Amino acid sequence: MFLLPRRPARIETERLTLRQPVMADFRDWSSLRAESAEFLIPWEPAWAHDHLSRKGFSNRVWWAQRAITGGSALPLFLFRREDGVLLGAITLDNIRRGPAQSGNLGYWIGAAHARQGYMAEAIAGVVHHAFGRLDLSRIEAACLPENAASRGLLEKCGFKYEGVAQSYLQINGRWRTHVLYAALRADRRGRTDAG
Fold first, then answer.
1. Alpha-carbon distance 118 to 101, whole Å?
2. Which tens digit of pLDDT belongs to each residue from 48-65?
3. Which run of H or of E encompasses 166?
4. Tens digit of pLDDT for each residue in 85-98?
5. Distance from C-alpha of 22 to C-alpha of 57, rounded to nearest angstrom
6. How far, rounded to the nearest angstrom, does the alpha carbon of residue 87 sit from its chain's CA centroid?
7. 69 near 9, Cβ under 8 Å?
8. Which of 135, 163, 182, 183 reaches 20 to 30 Å from 97, CA-CA?
């Protein structure tokens, strides 16, 4: 079977260009991750020993291209359109078709760019793309219960609290419980203050 190459993944928002990573992004990505390590590490899976290496990044680029081509994920970098600065990344991962039509959302932003509305804008763009272009019905997200910034961001973006998952992910080397949120394409649930 012959597969035609897909157009590179790209989403435009008011201030951002979201696009798949390429090898030319390595220096900006590794610098931003290194500068933001103290800000990011408490909320992320433990970094591999080669996390900031060119080889580690090459593996990320290869995985991103394969995932996009295969339709299993949409990993995107966030660039500020006015100056082309890399701000962070967002990934719609574990895309499930058939009766589920859903995916999981994950994201990070560099410390210097946090709390400026960029990630809310990126989430809105990815959710719109997922519901419109990808025809998904449900997008799920999870975060640590004490991550008030991430919980507030998800709620601001229309995600609703759905519950708790015990020992959901290994974060910074430990199995951690997460709170679960979801956005639905046709959401009639109303606001909830649970959790």
1. 27
2. 899 999 999 999 999 999
3. strand 160-171
4. 999 999 999 999 99
5. 9
6. 12
7. no
8. 163
| Alpha helices (H) in the chain, listed in sequence order | 26-35, 37-40, 54-70, 118-132, 148-156
Residues 57 and 30 sit within 8 Å (Cβ to Cβ)? yes
Name the residue among 44, 51, 32 with its Cα closest to residue 112. 32
Q: Please state the rounded mean pLDDT for residues 107-129.
A: 97
Distance CA(40)–CA(72), nearest Å, equals 25
137, 191 in Cβ contact below 8 A?
no
| pTM exceeds 0.85, yes or no | yes
List the one residue out of 105, 93, 112, 86 whose CA is nearest residue 18.
86
* 15 in Cβ contact with 80 (< 8 Å): yes
Sign of CA dihedral 168, 174, 179, 180: negative
Q: What is the reported pLDDT for 56?
A: 94
Residue 113 token pair: 């760019």
Q: Per the structure block, which two tokens stand in for 23?
A: 């090898």
